[in-house]
């Protein structure tokens, strides 16, 4: 391959739009955001939520997210949490695909939140 062609291809790939994505954060970052009043979205079931959740977190189970996504604000960061981080990663991907640009998945979910000794609400 000729050097100028290679440089052109590299330039094109560097300028290509990147797929939007979410950021995975540790619970300490969620705690700081939660203390500032940021929007926290809990995507667990009703029963799991009632057992204890991040104070102030909005409940929207993952199974209902597609139909109720309009309830999630687009004009502010969205911190997504579940039990372990799996469902919140799925929800975060759905939100990004729907055009949300500031989405944060909480690594370890409520398991990590409680292990860190942070407060829960019932």
Give an overview in words.
The protein is built from 6 helices and 5 strands. By secondary structure, it is of the alpha/beta class. It has one domain: Rhodanese-like domain (Oxidized Rhodanese, domain 1, 3-Layer(aba) Sandwich), CATH 3.40.250.10. It has a 5-stranded parallel β-sheet with strand order 1-5-4-2-3.
Question: What would you say about this model in short?
Answer:
The chain contains 6 helices and 5 strands.
Q: Under the CATH scheme, which architecture would be assigned? A: 3-Layer(aba) Sandwich
Q: Characterize the biggest β-sheet.
A: 5 strands, parallel
Low-confidence stretches: 4-13
Count the domains: 1
- Average pLDDT, all residues: 90
> Helical segment tally?
6
- Could you name the CATH homologous superfamily? Rhodanese-like domain
By helix and strand content, what is the structural category? alpha/beta
Radius of gyration: 18 Å
The count of strands amounts to 5
Side-by-side strand order of the widest sheet: 1-5-4-2-3
Order of helices and strands: HEHEHEHEHEH
Q: How far apart lie the N and C ends?
A: 64 Å
Helix content: 40-55%
The percent range for strand residues is: 5-15%
CATH topology: Oxidized Rhodanese, domain 1
CATH class: Alpha Beta
Q: What global shape is seen?
A: globular
């Amino acid at each position: 391959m000729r050097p100028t062609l290679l440089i052109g291809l590299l330039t094109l790939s560097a300028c290509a739009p990147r797929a939007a994505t979410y950021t995975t954060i540790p619970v300490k970052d969620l705690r700081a955001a939660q203390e500032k009043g940021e929007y926290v979205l809990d995507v667990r079931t009703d029963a799991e939520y009632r057992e204890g959740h991040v104070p102030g977190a909005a409940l929207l189970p993952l199974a209902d997210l597609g139909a109720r996504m309009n309830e999630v604000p687009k004009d502010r960061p969205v911190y997504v949490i579940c039990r372990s981080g799996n469902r919140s990663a799925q929800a975060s991907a759905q939100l990004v695909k729907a055009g949300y640009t500031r989405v944060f998945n909480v690594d370890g979910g409520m398991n990590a939140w409680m292990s860190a000794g942070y407060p829960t609400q019932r």
